[in-house]
Amino acid sequence: MTDPILKVDNILTGYDGVPVIHGISLDINPGELVAIVGANGAGKTSTMRTIAGLMKPTAGSIHFNGEDISRLPAHMVLRRGISYVPEGRRLFSKLTVRENLVLGAYMEKDKHEIEGRIEELYRLFPVLESRSSQVAETLSGGEQQMLAIARGMMSKPRLLMLDEMSLGLMPALVEKMMDTIVQVNRNGVTILLVEQMVQEALEIAHRGYVLQTGRIVESGPAESLLDSEQVRKAYMGM
Ligand SMILES: Nc1ncnc2c1ncn2[C@@H]1O[C@H](COP(=O)(O)OP(=O)(O)OP(=O)(O)O)[C@@H](O)[C@H]1O
Ligand SMILES: [Mg+2]
């Protein structure tokens, strides 16, 4: 057994003293695609923001590659190799596709290296190459989401955290998005995925955690969660 790349141990966090995460523990192994699923307000985004260093846990710990990162500020967490793609895209809307990508590598000074990364991403997302000089706000929703993921990969993360990539996409595009995420994972990037689209997420994930009001209520191999009566009743309307 290899050691997990990310180990979240019993973290508590909240907003202005109001707790919303009540002791979450999870592990991610190198190369895995892990999904956190749950309804609105379950605490999925808060969990990711805490891992990313945007919120501080009031208790518990987060280890990445064996190092305690629980108290590190977000830019240091990014430097360690964790890239967080937040909900709602947050692109630089007036900048072009290429400019958005360049800004995703702001920690890297070597221009040659940055160019190499862009070319690599263009192979993975050909649609972005064809729209290289188009400003981000004129891209379709699906293209913007691709750009958000690609920008998140410009820092060459060891762990990519994707928050609700399916949001606002029509079903056919959700499927395409999921295929893209699988492809990114197969290219060697460990992924933590957060989704309200429970079925779609569990269909592509290796393992999953079901979050309910700040607690993990079920976890395990994705296929057993897909079979779980509790999960099917609560999230798939079956
Ligand atoms: N900035 C904030 N200030 C106060 N409370 C917040 C804030 N952000 C989130 N919360 C609360 O924390 C809880 C968890 O929210 P969170 O955004 O983590 O859920 P989520 O699972 O990502 O939901 P969604 O699927 O709607 O994105 C909710 O009760 C929410 O109201
Ligand atoms: Mg959220």
Automatic annotation (TrEMBL):
GO BP terms, alphabetized: L-amino acid transport
Keyword set includes Metal-binding: no
UniProt keyword annotation of RNA-binding present: no
CDD domains attached to this UniProt entry: ABC_TM1139_LivF_branched
Naturally occurring in which organism (per UniProt): Desulfosarcina alkanivorans
UniProt record similarity statement: Belongs to the ABC transporter superfamily.
Location of the ABC transporter domain: 6-238
Protein name: ABC transporter ATP-binding protein
